[in-house]
Amino acid sequence: MKKLLALISVVLLSVATMSARDKVYRDASVLPAQAQQTLKKNFPKASVNRVVVDQNLFGTKDYEVVLSNGAEIEFNKDGEWKEVDCGHQAVPQGFVLAPIRTYIQKNHKNKSIVKIDKDSNDYDVELNDGTELKFDRAGNFLRYDD
Fold first, then answer.
1. What is the per-residue pLDDT across 107-140, written as a single tens digit (0 to 9) for each?
2. What is the 3-state secondary structure (H, E, C) of 51-78?
3. How crowded is residue 13: how many other Cβ atoms within 10 Å of its Cβ?
4. For the chain, what is the largest distance between any 2 Cα atoms, rounded to a whole number of angstroms?
5. How many angstroms separate the first and last alpha carbons of the chain?
6. At residue 101, what are phi and psi to the nearest 5 degrees?
7. CB-based contact 115:85 (threshold 8 Å)
């Protein structure tokens, strides 16, 4: 009986692992339409180097896009952006709420946002000097992060 349970566990784990594999593509056509439009609007001169489609066990997909300029953008299953990481370059203005831009311009002169992460509650922002800030969903400053 123990051997049977162990065998069933191994088979289920193997099936789960195989079904959750990432798939890699070389063009943006696998992305939802909203994600494709976001890329065209905010990165018109960059081409897609790689799209990683992460399909989890529940059938939903997440997408990670790497562009020719080094920027990395993560999208959810609906094509809404979740995170934009531009390395040492400034994140395009289209990803940053006006109140966040205003706060950065006023309180961090000559600094630029190089990474922004959006979740259901807030925005995490990283500046080119390594400073990390947190804003609420309306773009109001909350605090500095470590």
1. 999 999 999 999 999 999 999 999 999 999 999 9
2. EEEEECCCCCEEEEEEECCCCEEEECCC
3. 10
4. 68
5. 51
6. -60, -45
7. yes
Segment 21-78, tens digit of pLDDT:
689 888 889 999 999 999 999 999 999 999 999 987 777 789 999 999 999 999 999 9
Amino acid at 135: F
CB-based burial, 77-111: b 16+ in 10 Å, e otherwise: eebebebbbbeeeebbeebbbeebeebbeeebeee
Residue written as token pair 């994600």? 35
pTM passes above 0.85? no
User: Which two structure tokens, joined as six digits, stand for 6?
Assistant: 């162990």
